[in-house]
Design a protein that fits this description.
This protein is 71% helix and 0% strand. It contains three helices and no strands. With 114 residues, the protein is an all-alpha fold.
Length: 114
């Protein structure tokens, strides 16, 4: 089978859905809520800690690193996943799929490595 590395399904006939349509819609709603609150609440913590230098204790520095990593996930990963849930498939091609997997693994490991 000779498949180009950037092949994506171009129409509904080219792919098989892995979940029921209602499950994709539920995932999209959940991902939107996670992304919305993850973005704004983490941004709030970053702004708060940036303004008040008294908050820079050793424990809060670790928490700040966690917040930055989670904020990065909400900026980089969540829009791609949300768009895929709305589309019922991955629409960004193989290269971005691999890059997405790498960065989400990297950011996820940085969350748990602390």
């Amino acid at each position: 089978m000779n498949v180009a590395p950037n092949d994506v399904a171009s129409s509904a006939v080219d792919y098989e859905e892995l979940m029921a349509p209602w499950a994709y819609n539920a995932a999209a709603i959940t991902l939107f809520c996670i992304g919305f609150f993850g973005f704004f609440l983490n941004l709030f913590v970053i702004a708060l800690m940036s303004k008040d230098m008294q908050l820079w204790t050793p424990m809060n520095i670790i928490l700040f690193n966690l917040v930055c990593s989670d904020f990065s996930v909400s900026i980089i990963g969540n829009p791609l996943t949300l768009t895929s849930a709305i589309s019922h498939r991955w629409i960004f091609g193989r290269t971005l799929c691999v890059a997405y997997g790498f960065f989400m693994s990297l950011l996820g490991n940085s969350l748990f490595a602390r």
